[in-house]
Structures are given as C-alpha cells and as structure tokens.
Design brief:
With about 130 residues, this protein is mainly α. It has helices at about 5-75, 80-95, 100-105, 110-129. The chain is built from four helices and no strands.
Length: about 130
C-alpha cells in the first residue's frame, strides 16, 4: 500500500499509535485492578490471621489462668472435710442435681444447697488469700 502524502502518513501513524496506547491502557487497567483485588484479598487474609493469632494468644493466656486456678484448687482441696470433698465431687465433677446429691449423702436438698454455698464461700476465701 502506497501512502500519498505526509499528511496521510502522519494520520496513519497517529491512528496506529492511538490504537497501541489504547490497548496498553486497557491491559494496564485490567492488570492494575487484578493486582488491586489480590492485594485487598491479601490484606483481608492478614487481618483474619492477625485476629486468629490474637484469639490464640488469649486462649493460651486463659490456659495459663486455668492452670493457676487448678493449682490453687489443689491447695484448697486437702483443707476440706470428707463431706465437703464428696459434695464437691458429686455436684461439680459428676454434675448431679441437688436432689440427687442429697439422696446420695442422706441429707435434705436444703442442707445440700446450704452446704454448697458455704463450701463455695470457703473455697473463694481460700483462693482470695
């Protein structure tokens, strides 16, 4: 194909250049938004990981608190009477209702409620000191 004038040549070059720039801009914008979406997903993933790590730290911290509480309870249990130990075991380990604990220990349900409250206060006072 023969170009007739400089004006036609400039017009052809300008059209080719415009087409090239347009295709580059289209590709770059697609690539930009793809990278943007990937980065946003990565940031969201990091936030989830950070929250998970904080939750795990809290769980580990709570595990140490539970261990400390268990150690403190192990110090308190030997100071309890046999009746209090049995009541503690049946009520909180076996998770039996007051009526059943009363039947097993041969006392009234009201006596179990009163003994349980007294026992919990005694344990609380021992743990606080």
């Amino acid at each position: 194909m023969k170009i007739k004038s400089n004006k036609d040549l400039n017009s052809s070059v300008e059209m080719a250049f415009s087409s090239y720039v347009k295709s580059c801009m289209t590709f770059m914008s697609r690539n930009f938004f793809k990278l943007h979406d990937q980065e946003m997903h990565r940031i969201e993933s990091l936030e989830v990981l950070k929250e998970g790590a904080l939750r795990q730290l809290n769980v580990e911290h709570n595990d140490f608190a539970i261990i400390d509480e268990k150690e403190s309870l192990f110090k308190v249990v030997p100071t309890l009477s046999p009746f209090e130990k049995r009541l503690l075991f049946l009520k909180f380990h076996e998770e039996k209702p007051d009526r059943e604990v009363a039947k097993l220990l041969g006392v009234s349900r009201q006596a179990i409620t009163k003994s349980k409250n007294k026992l919990l206060k005694k344990i609380k006072d021992s743990l606080d000191s």
